[in-house]
């Protein structure tokens, strides 16, 4: 970091990192601390600083009055957000998101390294990041604006009809994306997020942390001029952020105006998945399911939601095969010290390995997918049915797509897939997983499709067998998905 401290009239934040987390009890003065910093250096020539207040009212839709206020007064946003309650916060976020789109497209036009990568689009790089925070709706671009659509029936939903948590998530994501897409290369860029966890479910809090880390990764070339400072009570958010080397943590106590930040420890990172959702086992008897990557995590989160409580697992993200092994050992020891009858699971990718089951490390029961990776399940009859199609439909649609996209970079992979006798069950298809949905004109993310298919499985499917059951491993499904059946 080029700057290692931020100083207000009385507040002092030292040991600044790219992500600086400030924790403390209610009444400790965290909000006042951040507002003091913002009001002191907010207009300093060497800083580009934005403050996001803790109470964020309104609806995520454009408002003419907000547009007028923003146009007439360059300090209008700063002045309104100096208070805890901001009535037009989300309307302002909607306006800023449109500005973020303009700035992103301008950057795409001016930067050949981005422009020449055809996978880089506003939809892929920005809109998809917001939609990864949502479960039942998606934010889509219409002819003149953005609109919310139901993932169930594709119906348009008014912004004031979506849940408070979804509304919060969209507004916060828009603010974060706008901040990064307006970075000033000549200044120190500081984003002050005051209790972003308010109104968010623990899963949403964790996903918000991953969004912030992902944006820092994208702007790694400017990393020494970016700082995101977050005050929070949220252990899921801290858990999500603690995986990153960008993160330092400090405590704000009542009457103490200096917060000294320290890098997140290895122990914190290992413990993070558990204290990040401390009531899950106690209240709903969820069991940890250790997974290798974020894709698997999103699939199983969707599966649990689709099952309406029947699948009682809490996905724990390892991040790599090596860390998955470490977490298996750590989870086993941890669970054994807390519970009389501990239970936990670990599910690894197949990675081309066939018929080599893993040995359990009780209380952790270890399984391996019977396909290359979780996205391969997208090609099973059950997942295709979620999209309203069959394998025959996909082959026909892919062939037609190939005739009109002969120069597409993934044409060879698609042709290999439709010619495969086993649908590339044990072959990597990661590069075409979303393309498969696009070819079938399915608007759902591939993770949602696979998760919904898993969540819809019944004990009859397990008894009679089907393609998805075989891809996932019947023994794993019996233990994890149907562990309370019978």
From TrEMBL:
Residues 70-238 form the ATPase AAA-type core domain. InterPro entries: ATPase_AAA_core, Bact_Antivir_Def_Nuclease, P-loop_NTPase. Pfam families: AAA_21. GO terms for molecular function: ATP binding; ATP hydrolysis activity. This is AAA family ATPase. It comes from Sphingomonas lycopersici.
């Amino acid at each position: 970091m080029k700057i290692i401290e931020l100083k207000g009239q009385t507040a002092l934040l030292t040991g600044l990192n790219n992500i600086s987390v400030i924790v403390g009890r209610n009444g400790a003065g965290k909000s006042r601390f951040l507002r003091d910093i913002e009001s002191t250096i907010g207009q300093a020539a060497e800083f580009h600083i934005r403050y996001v207040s803790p109470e964020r009212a309104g609806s995520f839709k454009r408002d003419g009055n907000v547009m007028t206020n923003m146009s007439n007064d360059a300090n209008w946003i700063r002045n309104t957000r100096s208070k805890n309650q901001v009535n037009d916060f989300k309307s302002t976020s909607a306006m800023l998101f449109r500005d973020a789109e303009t700035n992103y497209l301008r950057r795409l036009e001016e930067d050949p390294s981005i422009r020449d990568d055809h996978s880089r689009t506003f939809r892929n790089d920005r809109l998809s990041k917001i939609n990864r925070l949502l479960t039942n709706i998606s934010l889509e671009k219409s002819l003149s604006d953005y609109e919310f659509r139901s993932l169930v029936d594709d119906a348009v939903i008014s912004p004031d009809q979506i849940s408070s948590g979804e509304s919060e998530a969209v507004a916060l994501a828009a603010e974060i994306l706008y901040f990064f897409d307006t970075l000033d290369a000549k200044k120190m860029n500081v984003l002050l997020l005051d209790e972003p966890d308010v109104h968010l479910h623990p899963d949403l809090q964790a996903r918000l942390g991953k969004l912030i880390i992902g944006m820092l990764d994208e702007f790694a070339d400017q990393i020494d001029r970016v700082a995101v400072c977050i005050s929070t009570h949220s252990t899921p958010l801290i858990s999500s952020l603690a995986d990153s080397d960008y993160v330092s943590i400090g405590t704000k106590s009542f009457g103490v105006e200096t917060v000294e930040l320290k890098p997140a420890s290895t122990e914190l990172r290992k413990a993070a998945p558990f204290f990040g959702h401390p009531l899950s086992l106690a209240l709903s008897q969820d069991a940890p399911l250790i997974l290798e990557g974020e894709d698997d995590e999103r699939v199983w989160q969707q599966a649990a939601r689709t099952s309406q409580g029947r699948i009682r697992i809490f996905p724990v993200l390892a991040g790599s095969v090596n860390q998955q092994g470490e977490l298996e050992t750590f989870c086993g020891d941890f669970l054994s010290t807390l519970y009389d009858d501990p239970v936990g699971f670990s599910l690894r990718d197949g990675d081309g390995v066939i018929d080599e089951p893993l040995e359990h490390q009780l209380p952790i029961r270890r399984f391996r997918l019977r396909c290359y990776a979780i996205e391969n399940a997208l090609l099973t009859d059950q997942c295709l049915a979620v999209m309203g199609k069959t394998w025959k439909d996909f082959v026909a649609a892919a062939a037609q797509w190939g005739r009109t996209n002969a120069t597409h970079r993934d044409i060879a992979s698609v042709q290999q897939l439709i010619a495969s006798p086993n649908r590339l069950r044990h072959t990597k298809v990661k590069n075409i997983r979303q393309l498969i949905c696009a070819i079938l004109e399915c608007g759902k993310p591939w993770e949602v499709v696979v998760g919904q298919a898993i969540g819809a499985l019944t004990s009859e499917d397990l008894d009679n067998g089907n393609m998805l059951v075989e891809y996932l491993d019947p023994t794993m499904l019996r233990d994890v998905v149907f562990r309370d059946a019978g």
